[in-house]
UniProtKB/TrEMBL annotation:
Its cofactor is Zn(2+). The keyword Nuclease applies. Pfam families: YbeY. Belongs to the endoribonuclease YbeY family. One of its GO terms (biological process) is rRNA processing. This is rRNA maturation RNase YbeY. GO terms for molecular function: endonuclease activity; metal ion binding; metalloendopeptidase activity. It comes from marine metagenome. Keywords: Endonuclease, Hydrolase, Metal-binding, Nuclease, Zinc. The keyword Disulfide bond does not apply. InterPro entries: MetalPrtase_cat_dom_sf_prd, YbeY.
C-alpha cells in the first residue's frame, strides 16, 4: 500500500484504502468505474484499535473506497 500510495499519489506512507476512478463523469454507463485497494495489515491494525472484527473493518474500507470512486 505504501508503494502504491507513493507511486500514484506521491505520498510516502501506508494507508488503509486507495481508490482510483477509471471513468468520466457519466459513471452510470461505465461497466468498470474504478479500482479499490484495501491494505489488509492496516485494516487488521485498525480493527484491533477499534475493537471490531476484521471483516467489519474490511467491509467499511471497501465501502469507503467505493464511495471515493463514485465521487
Amino acid at each position: 500500500m505504501q508503494e502504491l500510495n507513493l507511486r500514484h499519489l506521491g505520498r510516502d506512507w501506508t494507508t488503509d484504502v486507495l481508490s482510483f476512478s477509471l471513468g468520466g463523469k457519466d459513471i452510470v454507463k461505465d461497466i468498470v468505474v474504478g479500482d479499490v485497494y484495501v491494505g489488509f495489515e492496516q485494516a487488521r491494525h485498525q480493527a484491533k484499535e477499534l475493537g471490531i472484527e476484521l471483516d467489519e473493518e474490511l467491509a467499511r474500507l471497501a465501502i469507503h473506497g467505493t464511495l471515493h470512486v463514485l465521487g
